[in-house]
Amino acid sequence: MGRRGASGEPHPATAAPPGRHRRDPLRRRPPFHDLDLRTGRWRAVHPCAADRYEGEFTVTGADTWQLEWRVGGPAKDQLLRSAYRRLT
């Protein structure tokens, strides 16, 4: 069974036509990477086919953290930076 929304209805991305089952590929794969922020910082590496993802997670406050992904491969050369904060 696929993911479900707050109402209990199937999530549109995983809903199958009546009488058919749709496999949720995210449930069958191992975790993308580990994440342990107890020290305030975590580095992760994730190989994906010919590409390599290197992530750095940094806690910047009680309710904030930053993420930086460096992605490299035959067709990729990216730096992605994101900042997150808890909504209260």
Task: Tell me what the structure shows.
There is one protein chain. This protein is mainly β. The protein has strands spanning 41-48, 51-61, 64-72, 77-85. 0% of the residues lie in helices and 42% in strands. β2 (51-61) and β3 form a beta hairpin. Residues 1-5 have low confidence and may be disordered.
What is the number of helices?
A: 0
Computed over alpha carbons, the radius of gyration is 17 Å
What would the principal axes of the Cα set say about the shape?
A: globular
Q: Poorly predicted ranges (pLDDT <50, ≥5 residues)?
A: 1-5
| β-strand number | 4
Structural class: mainly beta
- Give the strand order, joined by hyphens, for the main sheet: 1-2-3-4
Largest sheet: 4 strands, antiparallel
Distance between the amino and carboxyl termini: 32 Å
Strand content bin:
35-45%
Order of helices and strands: EEEE
**What share of residues is helical?**
under 10%
Q: Give the overall pLDDT as a whole number.
A: 79
How do the helices and strands line up, and which of them pair or pack?
Layout: E1 41-48, E2 51-61, E3 64-72, E4 77-85
Antiparallel strand pairs: 1-2, 2-3, 3-4
What distinguishing features does this structure have?
4 strands; disordered N terminus; 4-stranded antiparallel β-sheet; 0% helix; mainly beta; 88 residues
Provide a brief overview of the structure.
Helices cover 0% and strands 42% of the residues.
